[in-house]
From TrEMBL:
Residues 29-479 form the Major facilitator superfamily (MFS) profile domain. It is found in: Cell membrane. InterPro entries: MFS, MFS_dom, MFS_trans_sf. Gene3D superfamilies: MFS general substrate transporter like domains (1.20.1250.20), Multidrug resistance protein D (1.20.1720.10). PROSITE patterns: MFS. This is Spectinomycin tetracycline efflux pump. The chain crosses the membrane at residues 26-50, 62-83, 95-114, 120-140, 152-176, 182-203, 215-232, 238-262, 282-306, 326-345, 352-372, 378-400, 421-440, 452-474. It comes from Gordonia paraffinivorans. Pfam families: MFS_1. The keyword Transmembrane applies.
Amino acid sequence: MSHGHGSTPEASLDQPDAAPKVPAGAVLSVVTLCFGGLVAALMQTLIIPIQPDLPRLLGTSIGNASWIITATLLAAAVAMPIAGRLGDMFGKQRVLLGSAVMLTLGSLLCALGDTLVPLIIGRAVQGLAMGFIPVGMSLIREITPPNITSMAVAAMSATLGVGGAIGLPLSAWIVQTWDWHALFWVATGLGIFIVAAVGLVLPRINTAAGGRLDVPGAILLAIGLSAFLIAVSKANDWGWTSGTTLGLGAAGLAVLVVFGFFELRQNDPLVDLRTTARPAVLLTNIAAAAIGFGMMAQSIILPMLLRMPEATGYGLGQTILAAGLWLAPGGLMMMFFAPLSGLLINKIGAKFTLAIGATILGLGYLFAFFLMDAAWKLMLASIICAIGVGIGYAAMPTLIMGSVPVTEAGAAVGLNGLMRSLGTTIASAVMAAILASSTISLGGAQIPDESTFTWCFVVAAAAAFVGVAITLLIPTKGAVSDLVDEPVEARRH
């Protein structure tokens, strides 16, 4: 393996602190990947401002309209590990291009639709674009010099949170300025731009490992995940102890168990469960679910608390746009601190960086618990939580990629993204259950009591601190990141 980019060992000894020059092409590629990831993540919160109006706009029931949200979450959860595996097998640029095309087509279908079914299908296709993020992270490992890899991966990983954070004010402004279809026309335009950028900017490298796609495994994974996540996301509508919820959830888990046994017998599995069972990978994925839970909680609680009527005695009476603007600084802080986490990773390691991020996230919720009586205080709580998410989310893919061979990086990072999605889905259901547990009557409607919001903050903080405890158990030995310690420029076509 070479010692550097054209430098000799003697030169390195003479100038130990000299930083290698970063190629402009690598920087442009990272910017392209980060922007694509940002837009893909933005799709997750795109329709939150119009969510209460969807039944009226589409002439359907509240339960049916909720499938527009659920479809995106399900498609994203299934897409991330499968896209990661496809990237490892057939080339990451091809999968990135395909993900960008899915984003564009899904957005176009929603923009042209006026009824429920086209929107559900379009939103599901949009969800498939979330495969862009894990594949992009694993590509960064291959195209960047070692001195900026951690920072670049951190920036790419943070787009998961940043996209969601800026989505609320941006989409609220678009809806208030134009028709709701404009949300999807803007998304279509962004998708076309990303397709062009991926095709023109990203380098072509021949790291495709080849092999056969484990189609039966992909089908089992999709069925198992879909059944379990539908049961969790619909539990508040169907009842947590209803036969439908328990039966569907149990069936989903059973299929996932079958998937696990099936994968262990495959020579070319969709997910290498033996690699996934390594302590560093397994514990990072469990921590990802806990921290994903904590991240999603603020996206649900804070906007709702800001928008609650002042007549409740605790609500802050903000408009949709104002609530989004109060929370926008959090997204900016996440964007700012994600690259800084790359420096932390280089200084103290990804494990302790992740623990610091999860700790800050938990402290943000404790801050909100005591100070939820003013919009500016909730903004500060949002900023603290966002800093924690930005730091923590950036460290997870570094931990994963440092523990798996480069030929499995895409699938491994995709599985980590799936675990984060699992955490966010469970958070949505748990927060909804807590908010519905104690209500007051206002104007003939039942709305959450103030105590339910404080309990939400406590549960979210607990999830974050559980993430800290799990992270501290992650071993720091046995990494295989040195299998590839420099970009594969020499293997470009």
